[in-house]
Amino acid sequence: METHIEKLATLFARFPGIGERQAKRFVYFLLRQDNGYIDALAREIAELRSKVSQCTECFVFFEAVNGQALCSVCSKRDLDQGVMMVVEKDADYEVIKRTRVFGGRVFVLGGLAPAILKDVDAYIRIRELRSAVERRTGKGGLQEIILALSLTTLGIQTDEYIRRVFADLVDAGTLRITSLGRGLSTGTEIEYSDKETIVHALSGRK
Ligand SMILES: [Zn+2]
C-alpha cells in the first residue's frame, strides 16, 4: 500500500515541470513546517475552486467579488474593440497585462496543439475562439487578432493551425491575423519575456 508520503508526492509530481524527486522534496519540506503554514496551505487549496472564477469571454481565471461573469479587462468600457490577442495560458496573459501597452481583448487558448493531433479542438479552445471572433467582426468591431504564442515548435504549429481555421475570414477581408512571434527570437516564451521584448514584438508584428 502507498504511504501518505508517496501519495502526496504522486500528486505533486503532476505539477508542471515537477519530477518525482522534487515532488518528494516538497513532501519532506511540508513535514518540517509548523501547523500554521500547513493549515493555511490546505485552506487556500480547498477554497481555490470556490473563490476563483473563469471569465466567460476570455477564459482567464479571476476573483469575482460580486459574482460577476466578466474579468476586469472584458468589463472595461474603453476596451479597444478592434483587436484581440490570443495567448496560450493565464501566465502569458499576466505578462501582456503588465506591459500596459495593449488595450484590446485577450483570449486564453488553454494550451498549444501539435499539428499531428486529429482533434485539436478537444485540447485547446478553438471552437470558443471561432465563436468569439464571429460575434465581434463586422462594422466597428473586431478587425485583427494577434497570435501571441511562444516561438517554440508547438507555438508555431498552433499559430499555423489558427491561421488555417480563420483563412475564410481573412480571404473575405473581414479579419487580419498577425503574429507576435515573428517579432521574437526563436525559442522565446511569452511567460518569461520582459516588457521591452513584448513591446518590440507588438510593434513588429506581421
Ligand atoms: Zn475576460
Rg, nearest Å:
20 Å
Give the overall form: globular
Number of strands: 6
Order of H and E elements: HHHEEEHEHEHHEH
User: How can the largest sheet be summarized?
Assistant: 4 strands, parallel
Structural class: alpha/beta
Beta-strand portion reads 5-15%
How confident overall, as mean pLDDT? 89
Low-confidence stretches: none
What does this structure look like?
The chain has 206 residues and is an alpha/beta fold. Helices cover 42% and strands 12% of the residues. It contains 8 helices and 6 strands, in the order H-H-H-E-E-E-H-E-H-E-H-H-E-H. It has helices spanning 4-12, 20-31, 35-51, 90-99, 126-136, 153-165, 167-171, 195-203; strands spanning 53-54, 61-62, 80-87, 104-108, 144-147, 176-179. Helix 1 packs across helix 2 and helix 4 packs across helix 8 (195-203). The radius of gyration is 20 Å and the shape is globular. 23% of the residues are buried. The structure holds zinc ion (ZN).
Task: Outline the secondary-structure elements.
Blueprint: H1 4-12, H2 20-31, H3 35-51, E1 53-54, E2 61-62, E3 80-87, H4 90-99, E4 104-108, H5 126-136, E5 144-147, H6 153-165, H7 167-171, E6 176-179, H8 195-203
Parallel strand pairs: 3-4, 3-5, 5-6
Antiparallel strand pairs: 1-2
Helix pairs in contact: 1-2, 4-8
The protein binds zinc ion.
In short:
By secondary structure, the protein is an alpha/beta fold. It has helices at 4-12, 20-31, 35-51, 90-99, 126-136, 153-165, 167-171, 195-203, and strands spanning 53-54, 61-62, 80-87, 104-108, 144-147, 176-179.
